[in-house]
What does this fold into?
Amino acid sequence: MKRRQSALPGARRLAQLAAALTVSAATLVTPTTAQASTGMSPCLNYADQQTWGTFYADTRYTSTDPIALVSWLWSINVVSDRAGAYSWQTFINGKPVPGASGDTVKDDNLHSALPHYMNGQPVYTYGDTFHVEAIHEAANGQLYVAVDNQCYVASHV
It folds into this structure.
């Protein structure tokens, strides 16, 4: 996975760690849809609780699209550790989604959303596996990694 260069504090270290993490986590998500998988939860108020906090994902709808976007939030329990540099990549069926990654410095939890359509093309469909890999270094040097989350695209309606 190529990462763009950034002038953010610690961004080079985060990019290196994120690249290594992506390689080591490649077996977590297979390039098949979740419909064939057993035991995977839908992205409907999905919550993956870890010792460091919780990763949330939810499929949101509009009046014209029942799977208009998948919103997600990475909530770190230790409030003082939330600020700092973040890097993330979004995956559908194990493949990185172009334009759905980033490097940023935040003063609170990281959150984003993946739209159903980008550049007029569908990004995902019902049953596809949604997954985010993220890494965060708090100001105190504490490193947080989110890779275990995955759910399949479903609709509330």
Notes: The first helix runs from residue 11 to 24. The chain has one domain: 11-152. The two ends are 35 Å apart (CA to CA). The first strand starts at residue 46 and ends at 50.
